[in-house]
């Protein structure tokens, strides 16, 4: 169950106290089935799967959540085709042109007819809260998906002032300096991919993969004024990832020295494996987040922030 991408939010210390009521709030926001005339429903599901009623798994200060959604698939091409048939029938039967208002009404009729028969696509999104550190961590690099997760928790708690990080140090400038100088913070080494961009609007974009980032080719791009928007990194020989200038973490991978701590041969059930993986993942990420906080200046927000 290791997360693959991370969108990070911070919340104040006072919010940690309200997390005691989170379990009750989650229950009021359980995922329900998508009704015949609904496009989508969202709510919490068990991180242990459909056979469990538990909506939260807690280990110390860390609380694992799973946000589910059911979405009816109604492609626009299907709607437009059915609408065209309706418009053609009206024109043929009554010998007149269908106007804009009538077309809109006919489209609503088409959607009402097709929606109950549309396939439902389920989806799941994992997230966890670190009450001690004030982190809300969403397993997605999509800002929209992450903000939707924040909204879902806010509905469950009534109030959840989690905000995107506000770094005191510009991630773009700092990562560019790391790549130019080759001097990275202790424990951090370059990976093998990056994305460089000319900061000018509609400027050139260079994406490097499986590339020596200290090569002359990369340095020439930096000399021409391009800046680092994404940078592959490895931390303490334990975690590799690609860090974006928005501080989203992509392609997160735990290296063998971490994975070897999971004694899968002696894990007797999927539930026990999730428990062990979650405990290991959160402790490793706790250390990484402390370093991110140090490198970029990421203060935990206060109650007035």
Automatic annotation (TrEMBL):
Stated role: May be involved in recombination.
NCBIfam families the UniProt entry points to: PRK00321.1-5
Record flagged with keyword Cytoplasm: yes
InterPro entries assigned to the protein according to its UniProt record, in alphabetical order: RdgC (IPR007476)
UniProt superkingdom: Bacteria
Family the UniProt entry places it in: Belongs to the RdgC family.
Keywords: Cytoplasm, DNA recombination
Compartments in which it is found: Cytoplasm, Nucleoid
Pfam families: RdgC (PF04381)
Name of this protein: Recombination-associated protein RdgC
């Amino acid at each position: 169950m290791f997360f693959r991408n991370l969108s990070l939010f911070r919340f104040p210390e006072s919010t940690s106290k309200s997390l005691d009521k989170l379990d009750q709030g989650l229950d009021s926001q359980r995922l329900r089935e998508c009704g015949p005339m609904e496009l989508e429903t969202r709510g919490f599901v068990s991180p242990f799967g459909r056979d469990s009623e538990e909506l939260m798994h807690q280990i110390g200060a860390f609380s694992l959540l799973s946000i589910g959604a059911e979405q009816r698939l109604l492609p626009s091409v299907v709607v437009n085709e059915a609408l065209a048939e309706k418009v053609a029938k009206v024109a043929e039967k009554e010998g007149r042109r269908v106007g804009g208002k009538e077309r809109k009404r006919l489209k609503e009729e088409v959607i009402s007819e097709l929606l109950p028969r549309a396939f439902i696509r389920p989806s799941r999104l994992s997230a966890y809260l670190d009450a001690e550190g004030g982190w809300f961590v969403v397993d997605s690099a999509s800002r929209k998906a992450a903000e939707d997760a924040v909204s879902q928790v806010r509905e469950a708690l009534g109030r959840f002032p989690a905000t995107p990080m506000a770094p005191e140090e510009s991630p773009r400038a700092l990562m560019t300096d790391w790549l130019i100088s080759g001097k990275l913070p202790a424990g951090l080494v370059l990976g093998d991919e990056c994305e460089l961009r000319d900061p000018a609007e509609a400027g050139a974009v260079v994406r490097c993969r499986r590339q020596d980032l200290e090569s002359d080719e990369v340095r020439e791009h930096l000399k021409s004024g391009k800046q680092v928007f994404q940078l592959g990194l490895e931390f303490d020989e334990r975690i590799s990832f690609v860090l974006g200038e928005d501080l989203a973490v992509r392609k997160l991978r735990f290296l063998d020295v971490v994975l070897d701590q999971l004694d899968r041969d002696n894990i007797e059930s999927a539930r026990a494996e999730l428990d062990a993986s979650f405990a290991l993942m959160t402790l490793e990420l706790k250390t990484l987040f402390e370093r991110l906080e140090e490198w970029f200046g990421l203060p935990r927000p206060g109650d007035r922030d």
